Amino acid sequence: MTILKLRLLFDGAMFGPGKAELLAGIARTGSIAAAGRDMGMSYKRAWMLVEEMNTAFTQPLVTRARGGPGGGGAHLTETGQRVLQLYHVILEQTLAASAQEIAALETMLAAKGKPGVTDG
Asked: Which whole number is the average pLDDT over 89-109?
């Protein structure tokens, strides 16, 4: 199975698999802390990434509600949902357009378990 990880570098901003996973986790859990925990990162790191994304785009991707009697939480804005959707479309289209070349590279790989094969 081939997995494509794609990091998009814009002038002054970056969006890739980690931020996409964090957005998906926030959408799923309704919480920045829970999404970060699911990824093995601290709340501070998750919050910093959310702030980075909210600043990088013209509209915020995540909105937060402070805790209290009703509880807090976070959710994706329409822009956040659209950014995540577009990122997944780009991944799918890139994988489809490159399938033949990826398959050719795969045939050139050493067998798993042989020395010299790493994750990157």
From this structure: 94
User: Max CA-CA distance within the chain?
Assistant: 59
| Residue type, position 14, single letter | M
- Candidates 51, 61, 21; CA nearest to 38 is 21
- Gap between the Cα atoms of 47 and 105, Å rounded: 38
CATH number of this structure's domain 15-107: 1.10.10.10
Show Cβ contacts of residue 53 under 8 Å, excluding neighbours closer than 6 positions.
Answer: 15, 19, 23, 61, 62, 80, 83
pTM score = 0.84
Helix 17-29 and helix 78-97, axial crossing angle in degrees, nearest 10: 130
Which helix (H) or strand (E) covers residue 63, if one does? strand 62-65
